[in-house]
Design a protein that fits this description.
Shape: globular
Number of helices: 5
Order of helices and strands: HHHHEEEEEEEEH
Strand content: 15-25%
Helix content: 25-40%
Radius of gyration: 16 Å
Largest sheet: 8 strands, antiparallel
């Protein structure tokens, strides 16, 4: 019982830390190349960076590749959590917790193209009766849903058009230690850097 309680306390502490790390970046505008992509690729890149932002925050609190994977694609991040049994669909009985990762379908394809952190636990109801959550994310529109490339905290309708919640990952924050990239992660990073380089030539 003591071990379970201590593990739960550690999880909550690290979840708080990672959310506060993300919250400290609110207002950042990363038009084109930005510090998060430079952290990931090692070179300036204008690639999409919502998943990269989550990894950057995880690295700051010491849980990169133990609780949050170093990825650039939301689908790849979702698969990582599914393989660990840590992913919950939105229509399950699971209620999102602070520090969870929420996956959005932004184009009706059934594939996630955007991710953010859940910044407050549970579901809420807005004035129109919509089910909502609090989130913080990067490569997002501003608080008024204008543009993109912002770090923003928002009160989101989970069924909003062009940003439908697919599900949540509940990271295991108990082990506070960054893991060095596996060979698989390094191969992914290598090809993503090549892609970013050629994208920059034609952008």
């Amino acid at each position: 019982i003591v071990c379970v309680f201590a593990s739960s306390m550690m999880h909550e502490q690290i979840a708080d830390q990672i959310v506060e790390t993300a919250r400290a970046e609110i207002g950042y505008y990363g038009d084109g190349s930005n510090k998060f992509n430079e952290w990931y690729y090692g070179v300036p890149s204008g690639a999409a960076w919502c998943a990269v932002f989550l990894g950057w925050c995880a690295a700051r609190v010491g849980v990169l590749n133990t609780a949050v994977p170093k990825r650039t694609t939301c689908a790849g991040m979702m698969d990582w959590y599914k393989n660990r049994g840590e992913y919950h669909t939105v229509n399950s009985d699971y209620e999102p917790q602070k520090g969870d990762i929420v996956f959005f379908d932004t184009d009706g394809s059934g594939i996630s193209h955007h991710v953010e952190f859940v910044s407050e636990s549970g579901y809420y109801t807005d004035e129109n009766g919509n089910t909502c959550i609090y989130t913080i994310g990067g490569n997002a529109s501003d608080a008024n849903y204008n543009g993109q490339d912002h770090v923003t905290e928002r009160f989101r309708n989970i069924n909003r058009e062009n940003a439908v919640v697919m599900g949540y990952a509940h990271p295991q924050y108990e082990e506070q230690k960054n893991n060095s990239d596996s060979i698989f992660d390094k191969i992914i990073a290598f090809f993503e850097k090549i892609f970013a380089f050629f994208r920059s030539l034609f952008s």
